[in-house]
Amino acid sequence: MKDQKIYIIGAGLSGLVAALELEKSGFSPIILESTDKVGGRMKTDQVDGFLLDHGFQVLLTSYPEVKKYLNLPALNLKTFDPGAVIFDEKDSYIISDPLRNPLKVVGMAFSRVGTFLDKVKMFTLTQELKKKSIEDIFNEPSLPTLQYLKNYGFSDQIISNFFKPFFRGIFLEKHLNTSSRMFEYVFKMFSIGHAAIPEKGMQEIPNMLRQQLGTTQIYFNTPVEKIEGNLISLKNGETLEADRILICTQPDKVMPQMQGQFSNPKQVINLYFSLQKSFMARPMLGLIPGEGHLINNLVFMDDVSSAYSSSDRSLLSVSVLETELDEKELIKKVQEELEHISGIKSDFFKFLKSYYIRYALPTIDDLKASIPITECKITDHVFLGGDYLLNGSINAALTSGRLVAESVVLSYTPTH
């Protein structure tokens, strides 16, 4: 068993967890990673004294798999205040705790966002979902989230002022066409846990997984060209022979026969600016309801974790879902929108860096919480892992890494 050549393609969360689980069964896998660090879609850069995550991401502390693989106290998590700062046409106001304790939400602010009945419905939904298991949620019939919210009786007011801007940023699509299963799952996770970031950036999560590895080797800057049978062709012309191959990235990139099997992924543009000081001054997400604007959500990262800025300026992260504008125009328009909502002159928002994230989330038709481990195996040599098999979340990435490793271990177990 020990001398088995097991290769894992991709050092994202799924690949790292797969390696961890294989080590527990006595294997020493090799990870082939195309970039220069672990993390896959979860990476953090250091630029001009700031920590820049690739895309605005948060860790939901209530995710079940997170407790298995991550030492949360060691990540020194910094939590967001539940709720959001809403910037509407006229002014800004805070709704605190709308998912955690809606009936306690201060009446005035909530009345602008939704009706009293919306409050009651929000409370009822929270209580229902607390009682419902994750498996039950993913076994339910699937509706578009927008339809689900209307069927539940939420008013147009709260749908456009809160649900749309809040969940657009999570689903990375404007019309809330994402399955109601994902909505219920995320809503449940938000209402029983916290949204948080590691003190020193999201990269700390894959780094922590990597630190738990013992016998796994990782080859960085080693992109794979294609996989045929049990052979891995690298872009540098080398060919590797494998006993087992775990593809922990979207497989159509390396298996020609799988091209066309996947819907286009969700994209996002993440822009970073520095400003003399935060105009929100609280660890909260800023949302802009309505249509016709570029900014979907914004957050001053150093309001959440001061380590994100080692300069005397504040770090603003802005997410934009879709645009035809070129980068220069986009920056200018976003600065103008920031001036409009904050009253601070657009030139004061100093542009730092943009990330055009072409693959931010997988687009999945049939969302699941888990799959039988036999479904991870596609040939005697090739196995699949990745959140695209389940649902687009950190929890799904960790789950699928565990499942694909179990599938490989099972393939070595003699049947009687």
UniProtKB/TrEMBL annotation:
InterPro entries: Amino_oxidase, FAD/NAD-bd_sf
MF terms in GO: oxidoreductase activity
Domain Amine oxidase, chain residue ranges per copy: 13-408
Protein name, UniProt field: Phytoene dehydrogenase-like protein
Native species: Algoriphagus iocasae
